[in-house]
Amino acid sequence: MNNQTVEKLRNMRLGAMAQLHQQYVKENRFEGITCDEYLALLTDHQWEDRENNKIDRLLKQAGFRQNASLGDIKYGSERNLDKNMFVRLGTLDFVQRKENIIICGASGTGKSYLSQALGHQACLTGIKTLYTVTARIIKRLKLSKVDGTYLKELEKLARAELLILDDFGLQAFDNQDRETLMDIIDDRHGKRSTIIFSQIPVSAWYEIIGGEGTIADAILDRIVNSSHRIDLKGESMRKGILKQE
């Protein structure tokens, strides 16, 4: 009878529940537990298993480069990183409000780590997140125009509740790049949140985007006006790692 119950649970894709029930039966651990308590125990175990699997799936799909954590972030006046501000961002309220974050700073100041720490936290709370290098995603979208999958690729980006664009502006934008960037930003404006980090200060973005100006104006208007801004300072944090090694 118990074997049939376990098999039925597995057929209903309740594998965690089946495994726990099988363990309780094998070890005869029913003493002192009511039917209601046992059912709650099995249900909670299955629920936690599904939630953990969902988080693992979200983390894998996000494509992070680092296993970053909010708890490991180093604050200090030399970094120009306000702890109160960043802790508030760590609550992910900005995602609920469809707001953006812009992080600027020299190479090695920790822009990528901060972004990915927020992204990891988002995945832990069930928020679909995508991390990508700006130049790489634009190149992929350009290629998708050739095989007719451009709109499909844009929809994938639009479905991400949080999009993280790495190294914005390191490569010059041509006309196609500008149009592609505009499509990405326009699809997300007021609907989804985006984190953009760059070595280039925001004051130079207009020139970096280039063109006749109309598209640059539209892109910056949609990004900057609804963004929290972080301008990191200080020496490269990689120097400290090298010293420790």
TrEMBL record:
Classification via Gene3D superfamilies: P-loop containing nucleotide triphosphate hydrolases (3.40.50.300)
Molecular function GO labels: ATP binding
Record keywords: ATP-binding, Nucleotide-binding
Membrane-spanning residues: none
Residues in IstB-like ATP-binding domain copies: 9-239
Record has Transport as a keyword: no
Pfam families documented for this protein: IstB_IS21
InterPro entries membership: DNAC/IstB-like, IstB, IstB_ATP-bd, P-loop_NTPase
Identification of the protein by name: ATP-binding protein
Naturally occurring in which organism (per UniProt): Sphingobacterium pedocola
Lineage of source species: Bacteria, Pseudomonadati, Bacteroidota, Sphingobacteriia, Sphingobacteriales
